Amino acid sequence: MKILIAYYSRTGTTKKIAESLAEKLGADVEEIKDTVNRNGIKGYLLSGRDAMKKNLTKLEASKFSPKEYDLVIIGTPIWSWNLSVPIRTYLTDNNDQFSKVAFFCTMGGSGDEKAFAEMAEITNQKPLATLGLKTREVVKDNFLEKLEEFVEKLNS
Ligand SMILES: Cc1cc2nc3c(=O)[nH]c(=O)nc-3n(C[C@H](O)[C@H](O)[C@H](O)COP(=O)(O)O)c2cc1C
Questions:
Q1: What is the largest CA-CA distance in the chain?
Q2: What confidence category does residue 156 fall into, taking pLDDT thresholds of 50, 70 and 90?
Q3: Does any ligand 1 atom lie closer than 6 A to the CB of residue 47?
Q4: Which of these CATH numbers, 3.40.50.360, 2.40.50.100, 3.10.50.40, 3.30.930.10, describes 3-155?
Q5: Is the shortest distance between the CB of 48 and ligand 1 below 6 Å?
Q6: Residue nearest to atom 20 of ligand 1 (CA)
Q7: pLDDT digit string (tens) for 9-35?
């Protein structure tokens, strides 16, 4: 099975999970990049407001085409109990390009279920598996068991 992992990460947490998954699955990796600067306090506030309003952004060009993959695993941080703006944009721009999908996210506390439901709605796909992780689980390397479960679901 040809697998692509497409993710956005503002501060490296979601990136860590994407890279662990890529190693386990032998997948290609697309780091989605925004043309908007979201660094610092200004970037935080802008991102929170954009996410709440479900705004879209302009992304940098992608390296890989999702339609060439059997499975695309999409990863996002949670922003204002929503999916991040770059991932909302990626899914919207490519919404007819996905064969099968799975979703993961990282978050301070909550918002995963709502974001996953919306990701399913935008792609018009039921995910093979979902994985929501707390930031602190990722930082403390306390996510391997959940990651294994997620990978097992993908393979079953
Ligand atoms: C603008 C903004 C809004 C956020 N809103 C939420 C939220 O509603 N719920 C939550 O659990 N975490 C929230 N967080 C925390 C992030 O989801 C969390 O730190 C995540 O792991 C960051 O991932 P990253 O390092 O890949 O960017 C928010 C972070 C940012 C920057």
A1: 43
A2: confident
A3: yes
A4: 3.40.50.360
A5: yes
A6: 107
A7: 999 999 999 999 999 999 999 999 999
